[in-house]
Design brief:
- By secondary structure, this protein is α+β, with helices and mostly antiparallel strands.
- The chain is built from four helices and eight strands, in the order ββαββαααββββ.
- The chain has a five-stranded antiparallel beta sheet.
- A hairpin with a 2-residue loop joins strand 5 and strand 6.
- The protein is elongated, with a radius of gyration of 15 Å.
- It starts with a strand and ends with a strand.
Length: 127
C-alpha cells in the first residue's frame, strides 16, 4: 500500500498513524508492519503526538543541524534537510497483534518533513 502526504512547512511533523494502520488486515493475528518514506529529506519516527513535543522535535532538529554552511548547499541548498532526515531514518517497523498495531498508549507514527512544503510518498508493507 502507498499513500501521499502533503506538508505545509519546511520543517514540520504530520501524524500518519491512521493511514499506516489502515494497511493492517483485520484477520492478521501477528506480524510486522514496515512503513517507509520514499524520500531523502523526510523521515518517519514513533513518538507521542503532542503539539508541544512535536514543536520541541522541530526545534531540536533545527538546533542540532544548522540551516547553512554545508558543502551540498552549493548544489541545491538543502543539505540541512538531508542531514536531519539521516539522523531520524526513513522507516519504522511495528509489531502487529490481533489485526492492529501493537503500539504503546502514547505512540504515534509521525512523518518528519525536513525540506517542505512537499508531497511525500509513504509505502507500507505488512507480513
Amino acid at each position: 500500500m502507498r499513500f501521499t502526504v502533503d506538508t505545509e512547512a519546511r520543517l514540520t511533523t504530520v501524524d500518519v498513524t491512521d493511514r499506516v494502520s489502515s494497511a493492517v488486515p483485520d484477520d492478521l493475528e501477528s506480524g510486522l508492519l514496515t512503513a517507509f518514506v520514499e524520500h531523502t529529506t523526510a523521515a518517519l519516527v514513533v513518538q507521542e503526538n503532542e503539539p508541544r513535543l512535536r514543536g520541541d522535535l522541530e526545534n531540536f532538529l533545527s538546533d542540532l543541524v544548522p540551516d547553512e554552511g554545508h558543502a551540498h548547499d552549493e548544489l541545491d541548498g538543502n543539505a540541512d534537510s538531508h542531514l536531519r532526515a539521516t539522523l531520524l531514518g526513513p522507516s519504522v517497523t511495528i509489531p502487529v497483534e490481533d489485526g492492529a498495531l501493537a503500539t504503546g498508549t502514547w505512540q504515534s507514527i509521525l512523518l518528519v518533513e525536513c525540506d517542505g512544503p512537499r508531497t511525500r510518498r509513504v509505502s507500507v508493507t505488512v507480513r
